[in-house]
Amino acid sequence: MRQIETSEVAPSSAPLSQAIVEGDLVFASGQIPREPDGTIITGDIKEQTAQVMENLSSILEESGSSLDNVIKSTVFLTDTEHFDGFNDMYAKYMNEPYPARSAFIVASLARTEIDVEVEVIAKIDE
Asked: Is a pLDDT exceeding 80 seen at residue 126?
């Protein structure tokens, strides 16, 4: 098991790793719309989603993988009204065939001012 940490993503205050590599898989922790300097992006769901996907991309690249190798994603949104905007931006970062995906509408996320969190499992490039 190998821990992945990159300075391209702001560190979490929670006791967690940005990602863990086990075998040829990388398990990325849920990412929120936080810029590398720690600034939280709020408001527009497309802007929030873009930052989440950039964070995931940086973590996956650090592990030797990429968004192209995502097998499964799990999405947490705070409102069904965000689905269209989220999907529009998600599709700009993910290529077909799209990864398997689960999506949940939740009452709140750990940071109550944000509306999206995404975690992924990806295969490491050989």
From this structure: no
What are the sequence ranges of the domains in the chain? 2-123
pLDDT in tens, 33-67: 999 999 999 999 999 999 999 999 999 999 999 99
User: Bridge partners of 20?
Assistant: 3, 27
CA angle at residue 106 from 102 to 108, to 5 degrees? 140
Task: Find out whether 125 and 69 touch, Cβ atoms under 8 Å.
Answer: yes
CATH dotted code for 2-123 = 3.30.1330.40
Would you give the end-to-end CA distance of the chain in angstroms? 17
Angstrom distance (rounded) from CA 35 to CA 53: 11
62: left (phi over 0), alpha (psi -120 to 50) or beta: alpha
Q: What are phi and psi of 59, to 5 degrees?
A: -65, -45
